[in-house]
Amino acid sequence: MDDVLTAPAPVPPVGMSSGPLGEVQAAVREIARQTAVQARAVAAFAASRPAAADRAQGEPGAMSAERWARRSAVLRPVSEWATQELAVALSLSAEAAQALLERSLTLVHRLPATLEALEAGVLHVGHVWPLLDRVAPIADDALRARLEADLLVWAAGRVTTPAQLGDKARREVLKHDARAAADRLARAVRERGVSARPDRVEGTSVVSALLTTPEAAALVAALGAYADALPADPDDIRTRGQRMADCLLDLVLRPGESDLPPVQVVLSVVAPLGALLGGDAPCEIDGQVVPAETVRALLAALTGHPLITPADTATADTAPTDTAPTSTAPTSTAPTSTAPTSTAPTSTAPTDTAPADTAPADTAPADTAPAGTAPADSRPAGSHDLGPIEVPVRPAVPVDPEFERWWTDTVHRVLTEELAGGQPPLVDAAELQARWAVDEEPPETGPPPQDGPLPDGASDRWWARADRAVDAAGDAVLAAQQALGRARRLVATAARADAADEAAWANSPAGRVTTAPDALTALAAATDHARAALTGLLAATGGGGLADRPRLVLTDALTGALLTLTDLPALRRAIAQGGGLGPPGRADGYRPGAALDRHVRTRDRRCRFPGCRRRVPRGSDLDHAVPWPTGPTTAANLAGYCTGHHRGKHQAPGWRHTLAPDGTLTVTTPTGLTAATTPPPY
Which SS3 state, helix, strand or coil, does residue 272 take? Predict the structure, then answer.
């Protein structure tokens, strides 16, 4: 953290080009600066429209309790009418105006460093979205500020797309705020469902399915495998994506009518050793960041044996003796698994596409949940994990009917301003109260009618009844204060229980595994059952749910860079022979051997072109930095590209790609701009 605080101010990742491209760069940075200026101005406007000027909750005409509960925390201090004023001033819809207001307040009050980087031109507008989505919701102010600073330092000095920043933010949030991330995942799973929306082209629609990451990856891979298994037909001009869509329709709408053969799909799983032992380190499924519990559940389903049991996460009486050295590089496993959807021998990979670097539309989500989805919390109103809140109720004070009629009439006159200066009522009182009861605006007032007489016949006994009514109101206020005090005590009790639960988990084997500085310490902290289950997984040779032998990724403890890819038998042989481990040796021909090919793909994982996140296609050729046979077929001379950037390296005029022995790739554009990338750390 000290390094983050003393780090130099971030600078744009590349210099300014000349000519029209330089003008484009200058325009983008000016747009970012003006976006920051707009956010500060909107926040200042919001500060001038405090919610204190609105009707308080419970008053006639106030915002309904349901709408107020759905209101974002940053919007609650702001008047509800500020959105309408902003909408008129900027010609926006009410939803877009509220989204702009919420986004601006979040940047100013919860992500101030991001706002400064935007104002300095270090980030562009697209970078704001992943930080708003991933970092801003963190409740702990100190943790949120630390993660924000870490992400900005990480993004400084390199070409970083919004998708890359979002991926890094997901990893860091899972690593440092795993419990809250697990809660969000549980809520999202409860909201899973399928929906359809019209597409931009008339007559077409987009079907969306909210699924868990392994389910979604297996579904797409299976559809790709079905499309690839279709008989070859020279007259079939459909693309692979079109064939996948047609296969989906056949499988869902016409089950049993198609002759599609069963297929087998392959998912690549990357999990740190600590995650397999019960820790919270983030994992990957086909390149997508997922919580550790998701991978443990998937592997248990594929192998038939859980990696950890409740005893592995229970609080231990004493911590195990820490006898392992702390300088060993962390070890992670990369088992390749098959989804249990079929048993056909064909093994195909899904189409790898990069997420779009586009910001979501400038609209706020609707106040209602999508059809067909379960509510986030289906418990009865007024209940929670600690049980229902009991509100003490005092016995009601009897009120004389005659006094009640007089009081009701007086309230009507006060509401309609009849008693203010002796003026007659301007609106009908019953209509006014009916409109307020349904949270509507008061009706327009018309011309005042003729003056009417004030009520008479009031006697001193009415004032005595009024005193009793005031006493009754005081009793109600006291009861409300007591209920509020009880609620506060329940909240305090819940906070203490949460802290105790967190402390118990930290002292459990899973907690000690999570905080272990290296793999050997994590192994020492794990239970005997977890170590035995991990040994059994690493000793597997494939079969069942595993398409291949699980392998060990040995990495540098400081940088996370890949050192070597091995498996348990090879590791045991190296220990027995007293030899070292390293990348596979040089291949004799153009194509690398299986071990070298696997090593380079595990090192690069995604296209190495700056800013690209597409997966390196399975089965495609790796690129020789120095063309073969002048350049050798070694790990230091091989790099993975997606198909488009592989073609660009060889065909785009004026570009230069230089690969260093440590895997650093430097790309130079025709205008002289340079950008460098390194293999993604584990």
Answer: strand
Q: What is the pLDDT of residues 517-575, one digit of tens each?
A: 888 888 888 888 888 888 888 887 666 667 778 888 888 878 888 888 888 888 888 88
Cα 383 to Cα 389: distance, rounded to the nearest angstrom = 7
Tokens matching residue 503: 């402390």
Q: How far is it, in rounded angstroms, from Cα 115 to Cα 653?
A: 38
**Angle between helix 162-176 and helix 178-190 axes, rounded to 10 deg:** 110
Contact present, 75 and 99 (Cβ < 8 Å): no
Residues whose CB is less than 8 angstroms from the CB of residue 90 and which lie 6 or more positions away in sequence, other chains included: 97, 100
DSSP per residue, 94-162: HHHHHHHHHHHHHHHHT-HHHHHHHHTTSS-HHHHHHHHHHTTT-S-HHHHHHHHHHHHHHHTTS---H
CA gap 261, 230 in Å, rounded: 9
- Residue whose token pair is 């206020």: 477
Secondary structure class of 392 (helix, strand, coil): coil
**For residues 601 and 349, is the Cβ–Cβ distance under 8 A?**
no
Count Cα neighbours of 447 within 13 Å in the Cβ-side half-sphere. Answer: 2
CA atoms within 13 A on the CB side of 166: 19
The rounded distance, in Å, linking the Cα atoms of 100 and 165 is 22
Q: Answer yes or no: are the C-beta atoms of 552 and 539 closer than 8 Å.
A: no
**Which amino acid, one-letter code, is at 257?**
E
Ramachandran region, residue 318 (left: φ > 0; alpha: ψ -120 to 50; beta: rest): beta
Quote the DSSP letter at residue 53.
G
Our separate counts of H helices and E strands in the chain read: 24, 15
Sign of CA dihedral 464, 468, 473, 477: positive
Residue 255 confidence (pLDDT): 76
The residue behind tokens 């289906």 is: 378
Q: What are the angstrom distances between the C-alpha of 164 and each of 220, 354, 613?
A: 22, 10, 7
- How far is 670 from 652, CA to CA, in rounded Å? 9
Q: What is the mean pLDDT of residues 506-524?
A: 85
3-state secondary structure of 44: helix
Closest among 585, 592, 662, 659 to 622, alpha carbons compared? 592
Neighbours of 154 (CB within 10 A): 17
b/e burial code for range 286-311 (CB count within 10 A of at least 16 → b): bbebbbbbbbbebbeebbeebbbeee
To 5 degrees, how large is the angle CA 538–CA 543–CA 548? Answer: 55
Q: Rg (Cα) of the chain, in Å, rounded?
A: 32
The beta-strand segments (E) located in 467-583 are 552-555, 562-566
- In this prediction the pTM is 0.60
Give the model's pLDDT for residue 352: 36
129 in Cβ contact with 114 (< 8 Å): no
Does position 639 have pLDDT exceeding 70, yes or no?
Answer: yes
Distance of CA 643 to the CA centre of its chain: 29
d(CA 97, CA 206): 27
- Whether the per-residue pLDDT at 72 is higher than 50: the answer is yes
Cβ pair 673, 14 in contact under 8 A: yes
Phi, psi of 586 (to 5 degrees): -70, 140
Could you read off the pLDDT of 24-36 as tens digits, one per residue? 999 999 999 999 9
User: Whole-angstrom Cα distance, residue 602 to residue 614?
Assistant: 14
| 393: amino acid identity, one letter | V
What single letter denotes the amino acid at residue 514?
Answer: T
Highest mean pLDDT of the ranges 253-267, 334-348, 627-641:
627-641
- Tell me which residue of 619, 122, 67 sits closest to 349, measured CA to CA: 619
